[in-house]
Hints:
It is a single chain. The protein is globular and about 70 Å long. The protein is built from 18 helices and no strands. Helix 1 runs parallel beside helix 5, helix 4 (87-116) packs antiparallel against helix 15 (376-416) and helix 15 runs antiparallel to helix 16. It has one domain (2-185, 239-407, 463-487): Growth Hormone, Chain: A (Up-down Bundle), CATH 1.20.1250. The longest helix is centred in the last third of the chain and has 41 residues, at 376-416. By secondary structure, the protein is mostly helical. The protein has helices at 2-26, 30-58, 60-79, 87-116, 119-148, 154-157, 159-173, 186-204, 206-209, 214-234, 250-279, 285-313, 316-336, 346-369, 376-416, 421-434, 449-456, 458-487.
Amino acid sequence: MLFAVAMTFIDQTIVAVAAPDITDELGLTTSGMQWVVNAYLLSLAAFFALGGRLADLLGPRRMVVVGTLVFVISSILCGCVPKGDFAQTWMIIFRAVQGLGAALLFPAALAVVVAVFPVERRGRALALFFGLSGALTAIGPLLGGWLTAWTWRAIFWVNVPVAIIALILTAMAHIADRRRDEPLDVRGAALMVVGMGLSVLGFQQAWSWGWDSVATWACIVGGLLVLWFFVRFERGVRHPLIDLRVFDDKAFRIDAVVLFFAMLAFVPLFFFASVYAQVSLSASPNQAALFLLYFFAGFAIASQWGGRILDRTGARPALKAGTVIGAVGFALWAGKLTDLSMHDQWPYAALAGAGIGFILAPASTDAVNRSLNASYGEVTGVTQTIRNYAASVGLAVFGTILTHATTDNVEKTLESRGVSDGRSQDIARQVAESVTGSGDARTPDGSGPAASAMRDAMSAIRMDFAQANQWVFYGMAIALGIAFLFALRHPGGKAVPADPNAPQGDAASPQAPAPGATTPGGGSR
Length: 525
């Protein structure tokens, strides 16, 4: 199962380092490249709950195999994208199919892990399972930088041998399939996909359409209304796609909210930091990957501490520490971006990584431990959906902010060098759309004054891009600051995990904890 899910985590970050090379070879726009990254995350979020439900209905082993095949076939097709006008559409479609494969695969793999480990060993197994996500997410940029030096297409083809090993190991493990004879909530799944897709589309296209556009707000508000209707609908369904009764537990609600704001920063960081390194610092893909290692150094250490804190006292201390450290780290890191020195930024990158490390595993594990009886898969479906949806929203919102800020900064730089208002605006927009195309922002063709001024201003434009990224990193700091306010309200206490192999009673009743243990709400019995 670890081999199977390895692909899904690596692909959350591996594309970020290769983004400039992909954009340059295929001629994608900045918003198009963001959609290539975001299509995977959005599809993973939209279909994750459906994947968990299908694992219950059809059997987890079968869904692991199906999800792995869907994932690896779409990976091959992503690597085989032809050049031309259809390239952007091709990439977005098959990245979305990749996300669908991951959504089918991951919850089924988790269900297998939960089923084969007894209650007394399940905590350690789940800690390894969730902790692996951070480690594999860290491998993504490094692997991406190394493979991109050969060809960026290899970042997709590398999934083939991993998938083959995963399928062989799955066959050798002789995993038993448990199925439930229940109907599938198709209408709930459709509402979730439409709601998430519309809302993220609005955030993503706000730069192109404008924040004052009716289309922008129609998508955002319309998508959120569909998600609100989804929640109302699910509460009235006998066999819902997601059992929303888990939100009756206050600690679970806080875990979910803190995860949402943390993920606004976590996955989008890889895209923005990588592009910043390659544009403003003129780094190679390999150097950009090493730049991200500073972040993961702090993340790896804090993840271990966070897990120990969770085991001893519960999630609340780890969440409070993580949100504060992360907010301070991102804010200080933002202030250093304009120094244009990779090595001067490492303490702040490590501090930001430590903050995220203190949050993710403790919040995810605490939420799973507070599951209803026999509903580990459903609870994980909720938390993973929230995590991936937040990553999609973060990438869309921060991408819009970055493009706006880059356009404004470049326009002012060109005007200061004598380019007319109208011409500077056109060029600035062109630069903002193509700035991720290579290590240097592209210059307009020709020998006129505008092109000459553009070439003369290239060093200043690299600084403009760094200043634009400051808005993104300050936004990430604000997101973690908001998460801290919610972490303060966490009731604390250690949750007692339910046993999904226990006799089935009323699904609404959590399994009773052992005498002297704390209840999911944090109080003693």
